[in-house]
Amino acid sequence: MRSFRAVGDEPVFIEHGDGPFVFDADSNRYVDLVCGWGSCLHGHAYPSVVEAVIKAADKGLGFGACCEAESRLAEIIIGAIPSIERVRFVNSGTEAVMSAIRLARAATGRTKILKFAGGYHGHVDSLLVSAGSGAATLGRPDSAGVPESIASTTIVAPYNDLAEVEAAVTSYGKELAGILVEPIAGNMGFVPPVQGFLAGLRSLCDRCGALLIFDEVMTGFRVAWGGYQTLNQSPSPRAGAPCEHFAGPGAGAARAGALNPNPSPNPSVGAPNAIDSRPDITVLGKVIGGGMPVAAYGGTAALMSNVSPLGPMYQAGTLSGNPVAMAAGIAALSACKEQTYNRLRQISRALTEGLQMKARESGFELQTGSCGGLWGLAFSPRPIRNFDDAKSCDHSRYAQFFRAMMDRGVFLPPSSFEALFVSAAHESAVEQVIAAADKSFRSLRR
After folding, report:
1. What residues act catalytically?
2. What are phi and psi of 226, to 5 degrees?
3. pLDDT of 433
4. How many other C-beta atoms are found inside a 10 Å radius of the C-beta of residue 354?
């Protein structure tokens, strides 16, 4: 991703960040809509997080032993997410997903995992697979170095297609350890679940005895306090308001009406059937580290008792629970208030509505959507519901838009398959982004 090859550009080398901005080695300033791929919820170099890191580092960088900060961060996470009673810290989303899959296999005694086409869950061997078209199928390696025998333990189905998942469960249910899903897919753009999709996955897991695994590395503590799974449940006054999903004009907007009955161009639809789709295992990352390398997985006390030293499933890491990283996570989550999520939602909505308007004025068909501090855009005449839809977008147009925006001081993800992010500090930069988009759209039209 950092090579910029997908957008035909040269990579930038970032020297430092400040609030909503990053500065490259040539002293160019950009409004940062990558935000450390979602980890910077409060903006770069947020004072309380930096202070916590310096204070913790002054006492030592790591001990290979338990520290109080682990328990403190665990208490915050457990208090925010009802589905988690015990949590285990690791260093990356890849490690967390790998461990969650191992836990599902240990708890069920089964082997296979179902994931969704276009869903990225880190560079775990068994998950680096792509989907064929049509019916759900066993995965094939999508990377050199991944043996067929490992990839074949993964079943791939289209996102937002319960019928295909049900067909896979009918075929492989007795072998299925778990279904792994991003509540909002963020690696094929921004793709929210259609009404009933997540609840349907919960029901299918219950039917066949598999575990439901939510990969909330992107959405956890970014779309709401406690993640996507807590939307509409009001677990805390910090939860903020529901999700905003909306689509572009014309046929896109008409089809968006099928997603929820509210016909307004920017309906507040919340999390469809959130209460009925509570996961067995939750994977977290990004925000819980405040910019430091921290991730986690958790579930009920009974399920997590399978993990060593209480149970037979082994998982460990020299740097897991590192005191400096834990301090950063505690500071970042402690700074989350109700107004934080209200501000994130307002900023994302202002950006998507502003870009939508400027695209329309220049004659471009643009799809947009947002949920909390997570949002997306796609050059397409119709909403994006799955990976096939994402692949059909105008990716060359996005590459042109990316370069035009960089020239005007806005740093977008260097791939049209990525979601975008804002921090609570981006309020002051909204008008700059919209103005840059206006000029960029006009330049592309010529």
Report:
1. 120, 215, 286
2. 95, -5
3. 98
4. 18
